[in-house]
Amino acid sequence: MNSRFKILPLLTVFLVIALILTSIALVRTQNVYAAKTDRYQNLDLFTNAMYLIENNYVEPVDDKKLIYGAIKGMAEELDPHSVFMDPKTLREFEVETQGEFGGLGITIGMKDKMLTVIAPLEDTPAYRKGIKAGDQIIKIEGVSTANISIDDAVNKLRGPEGTDVTITILRKGVDKPFDVKIKRAIIVIKAIKSAMIEKNIGYVRMIQFTNDISGQLLDAMKALDKQGAKSYILDLRNNPGGLLTEAIAVSSIFLPADKNVVYTMDRNQKRHDYNSTTFTHKELKKPLVLLVNEGSASASEIFTGAMQDYGRATIIGTKTFGKASVQNIMHLNDGSGLKLTIAKYFTPKGRGIHGIGIEPDITIALPEVKEEEKAKEELDQNLTANSSVAEYDLTKDVQLKAAVDKIKELPANDTVKK
After folding, report:
1. Do 231 and 257 belong together in one domain?
2. CB 157 within 8 A of CB 355
3. What pLDDT is stored for residue 326 in this prediction?
4. Is-catalytic flag, 309?
5. Which of 47, 233, 270, 404 lies at 20 to 30 Å from 155 by C-alpha?
6. Which is the catalytic residue, given 323, 336, 339, 406?
7. Is residue 206 located within the same domain as residue 324?
8. Do 297 and 347 lie in a common domain?
9. Which candidate in 298, 300, 336, 339 is catalytic?
10. pLDDT tens string 106-152
11. Low-confidence ranges of the chain (pLDDT < 50)
12. Are residues 252 and 344 in the same domain?
């Protein structure tokens, strides 16, 4: 009899626990069902709108055009870097990361809701016409760029080689917008240029993080070493970024193996670390200075952030662009695709720089050219395209001059900060 009374409280506890678990499962099921119901209702709204357009619009409509427009609109609602690309645009984008593509030679993005030049690529039509990082493109062929997507802007700027496109530029320090006519060309990116400064300083211009820039940088450094380089200045000004894998590879040259270069956090706060790798050539001791400006973005900022966090390099120039989100290409079954933001980058010390940028250790701005005629002045049309030699002028480039002065003060590095 006593044992029966002892069992009853246990049964009661088990029943209460079972009731609670059943209630939780029921609530979760109802929430999932409600979420699915809301989603299906929204899809019904979409199909209803599409049906009305197809059957009532004044002219016949193309179903695929409507679907593409809808997907494009969905992507534009997310952020400036998430875009839908039709098959032709996707093919052109994939060619671009290999280092050769058609167009003007500028990387563009959205900043303060304005179509903005992140950076002009060296030795390209836009560069020779004097387009600068931070220039706002307010018109393309006389048509306002207000509310334009990056994808649409790229399509308007690109075209057959040899044809012209006119863009209207709004530039800080210039009173009025001005037009620039640029002839389109096939853009072949020379990722690395180098030269010696004052017999013992290796100077390397890094144009863009294209495929195998790490290998090209190593080759340039080895050549500079043979000429007596005791330190390096790496110029990342107007480098709009490129491949994440190359940002890791370049960082690996200057860091010991297995150091965190950057990490990402996705929507579920899942962290993914990208660490330095073992390179056949490491440069851990020679003094290093990086030059950056508002045109230094994405992969440039990953490299710069790692060098700054570990104290491996002194950063000189102006604040970087602040593009630190991860986009992934997702192919759709008809050859189109989504470039979708899936995570954000953080520096090894956990700094979030998206929309903020990286402040240099030493801030030095180039003198502003306020006169409109000077602002519109074109560069020498006879510049040698794709030369591997980095040209410089220490009397005019105050940022590079500051880098030269600073690197003379820096001792060789014995350790890297943890």
Report:
1. yes
2. no
3. 83
4. yes
5. 47
6. 323
7. yes
8. yes
9. 298
10. 988 888 889 999 989 888 899 999 999 999 999 999 999 998 888 78
11. 1, 5, 27, 29, 32, 99, 371-385
12. yes
Q: Which domain holds residue 107?
A: 79-187
Condensed to tens digits (0 to 9), the pLDDT of residues 170-208 reads 998 898 999 999 999 988 778 999 999 998 999 999 999
Burial class (CB in 10 A: 0-12, 13-18, 19+), 367: exposed
298 noted as active-site residue:
yes
Residue-wise pLDDT for 229-257, tens only, equals 999 999 999 999 988 999 999 999 999 99
Q: Is 405 a catalytic residue?
A: no
Pair type for strands 288-292 and 164-170: unpaired
Domain stops at, among 154, 170, 187: 187
Domain assignment present for residue 315? The answer is: yes
Domain assignment present for residue 86? The answer is yes
Choosing from 158, 187, 216, the residue where a domain stops is: 187
Q: Is residue 207 part of a domain?
A: yes
**Catalytic one among 123, 129, 309, 339?**
309
Report the domain count for the chain.
2
Does residue 194 contact residue 388 with C-beta atoms inside 8 Å?
yes
Of 260, 281, 274, whose CA–CA distance to 217 is shortest? Answer: 281
